[in-house]
Design a protein that fits this description.
With about 475 residues, the protein is mostly helical. It has helices at about 1-25, 35-40, 65-80, 85-115, 125-145, 155-165, 170-180, 185-195, 195-205, 230-235, 265-270, 270-300, 305-320, 320-335, 345-370, 375-400, 410-425, 425-435, 435-450, 455-470, and strands at about 50, 60. The protein has a two-stranded antiparallel ribbon.
């Protein structure tokens, strides 16, 4: 029996570590946009949009080229979020294996299209980066459930995976460095396409066919076993629909038989609406920054390509720190786990500090971005990766805390899909920022202030629930 338990533990750890590597090396490639654009400009993708200026023969106006690259990223980031609603539905209803096979097909198609693209077929970048984005986020969605294998550290693992997702953008820095050493863009992306075979093997060996339940049954196992096992039997016991577990964290109903929230009531709750505003505003700030980073660096460096390359490398290197920053947020959200609090209360009490810190980071990041001083951008890069790690890790962790687990895929998909509509605003802002960069930055700073509504609401709710428990101690077990 001891050997069996050790076998389960080993499989859990292998799943955790390989999932972390998968998110770190593949899932968030599309967010290495700045490094990729540097290479694509050298290859003269959309080069026909650069026109000679009247001042000197050697000077060219490439604003049209910059707009095309920004639009490629806008479309990819929009689909990355918007289709997450459909992806969440597929994950909830079709299970892990089918969802991962779809993700691998999309991701492989994206890397293959980049490998087959050329300056003459620059528009292949639109479907290529879109497929990379959608396939990558699907891989992330299927991996976040791994936190259920380690209940005491669930939020930490979820944020850790999201941090790895952010850090994977640095892979395109490696592609950029290899390109400068003589290895072509096409060779690098063919290699990434071949690596998809590793994802297929992990899908069958180290991931469940359906879902990893929360809470975890005793001796739970999954994947392909070498010999007769009870994997199928164990997985058939997983919850197929929402059980009557607990009410909404916002509810004050003292009924003796509380029922789980419906999906509709989750969507209509203040928690969800304010969380959507919180995510949408800060995501727009980050997408706009990434999409315009190359043109901003060119403007601040007065067109010095060596300086632009230096700062692009610095930005990509800081993205590697995402995997180190994200667990801090998870530790904040898990810090009350061992305290004698009511179910769900510990998580909510921890979450408002995480939400507040994330909004504060974004505000400081927006202020630094608005200052037209090139050396300051090193600090801006650090703030950006820290805030982005907190943002996406905190988003997934809060949804898993505040709402029933059986709605996680749909709610995660919905919040990402709606926020995608807001992120489309980055494209018209690109046209405005060329003429009025300072005013756009100031507007985004004031917009960021709206993100503070969400942590304030959660804090007030927790204080209210604490007061109710003091007045009615008999309701503690039901809150």
């Amino acid at each position: 029996m001891q050997g069996t338990v050790a076998g389960y533990s080993l499989r859990y750890w292998l799943t955790l570590i390989t999932g972390l590597l998968e998110c770190l090396l593949f899932a968030g490639l599309v967010f290495g946009h700045a490094s990729l654009v540097f290479v694509l400009k050298k290859e003269e993708y959309f080069g026909w949009l650069c026109v000679d200026t009247n001042s000197t023969m050697d000077s060219k106006d490439c604003s049209g080229q910059d707009e095309q690259f920004s639009l490629v990223f806008t479309v990819a980031s929009f689909l990355n979020n918007f289709l997450t609603l459909l992806n969440g539905y597929i994950f909830d209803h079709c299970g892990t294996r089918m969802t991962r096979l779809l993700a691998i097909a999309l991701f492989s198609g994206g890397t293959l299209l980049v490998a087959l693209s050329s300056p003459e077929f620059s528009h292949l970048l639109y479907p290529a980066l879109s497929l990379l984005a959608v396939g990558g986020v699907l891989l992330l969605i299927t991996n976040m459930q791994v936190g259920n294998l380690f209940p005491a550290h669930r939020s930490t693992i979820i944020t850790f995976y999201n941090g790895a997702f952010d850090s994977s953008s640095a892979v395109l820095l490696i592609v950029k460095i290899l390109y400068e050493q003589g290895i072509s863009l096409h060779t690098s992306f063919i290699f990434l396409t071949v690596c998809s075979s590793i994802h297929v093997a992990r899908t069958f060996l180290l991931m469940p066919k359906t879902h990893i339940p929360y809470t975890l049954p005793e001796n739970y196992t999954y994947g392909t076993n070498c010999g007769k096992g009870n994997t199928d039997t164990v997985e058939e016991t997983e919850i197929k629909e929402c059980p009557p577990t607990q009410e909404s964290p916002e509810t004050e109903n003292t009924s003796l038989a509380p029922e789980v929230q419906s999906f509709g009531s989750c969507v209509k709750s203040r928690f969800f609406i304010f969380h959507l505003v919180w995510l949408s505003i800060m995501q727009l700030r980050h997408y706009f920054f990434i999409g315009t980073l190359n043109s901003m660096l060119n403007r601040l460096a007065d067109g010095d390509s060596n300086l632009v390359s230096q700062y692009t490398n610095a930005f990509a290197i800081t993205q590697l720190c995402g995997i180190l920053c994200a667990p801090w947020n998870g530790l904040i959200m898990d810090r009350h786990k061992k305290k004698p609090l009511a179910p769900g209360e510990a998580d909510l009490r921890s979450s408002y500090l995480s939400l507040l810190l994330t909004a504060l980071q974004c505000l400081l990041f927006s202020v630094c971005t608005s200052i037209a001083f090139l050396p300051l951008q090193y600090f801006t890069f650090v703030l950006q990766v820290l805030n982005r790690s907190f943002l996406y890790g905190g988003n997934a962790a809060f949804l898993s805390i505040a709402f029933p687990a059986c709605h996680f895929g749909k709610l995660y998909g919905l919040v990402m899909a709606v926020s995608a509509g807001v992120s489309v605003l980055q494209y018209p802002l690109v046209s405005v920022v060329r003429e009025y960069p300072f005013y756009v930055d100031i507007g985004l700073i004031f917009l960021t202030l709206l993100a503070f509504i969400h942590p304030t609401n959660v804090f007030i709710h927790c204080r209210k629930q604490a007061r109710l428990r003091k007045e009615h101690p008999e309701t503690r077990a039901r809150l």
